Amino acid sequence: MSDLSITAANVLPSVGAINNRKSAIAAVAITAGQVLYKLTATDSTYGITQVGLADSNAVSPANSVEGMAINNAGAGQIVDYVPFDSNFGSGATGVAVGATAYLSNTAGGITVTYADIASASTVITLGVFVSATNFNFNPTIGGIKP
């Protein structure tokens, strides 16, 4: 199976997560529902955090997770994201309840198929689906896939 198909217009954080949202400057174009990592350098114009698209087979820090985008942003624009959410509306549909979501080998992508993660990639569990569309987004690093 490939990455989940995300409809950005359907990405919806829970009410509780909205209170914990953060903002950063997008280092690249970002779509709501994509997984983000924190760049080591801050934005030179605004002096705030920059984020890019996380990727499990990239090198550090891109193979880590800072949060999940909740709006679209072009490079250099402000993107809002949540670092965790117990009932995150993923924008995907038809996912089996109990399915585990992982950071994929595609920048910003999510997969529910462990076999899609390439050997020698950093395995990051993003959470478990609690419905066909929502999951408990709580990223956990699981080590390197053999």
Q: Detail the poorly predicted runs.
A: none
Strand-residue proportion:
35-45%
The total domain count is: 1
By secondary-structure content and strand pairing, the structural class works out as mainly beta
Number of helices: 1
The count of DSSP E runs of length 2 or more, i.e. the number of strands, is 11
Instruction: Tell me the helix content.
Output: under 10%
Terminal CA distance reads 20 Å
Largest sheet, strands/sense/barrel: 6 strands, antiparallel
Mean pLDDT: 95
How would you sum up the global shape? globular
Strand order of the largest sheet: 1-7-11-10-8-9
User: Radius of gyration over alpha carbons?
Assistant: 14 Å
Model description:
With about 150 residues, the protein is an all-beta fold. The chain has one domain. It is built from one helix and eleven strands; from the N terminus they run βαββββββββββ. The protein has one helix at about 15-20, and strands at about 10, 20-25, 35-40, 50-55, 65-70, 80, 85-90, 100-105, 110, 120-130, 135-145. A hairpin with a 6-residue loop joins strand 8 and strand 9. The radius of gyration is 14 Å and the shape is globular. The two termini are about 20 Å apart. The relative contact order is 0.25. The mean pLDDT is about 95.
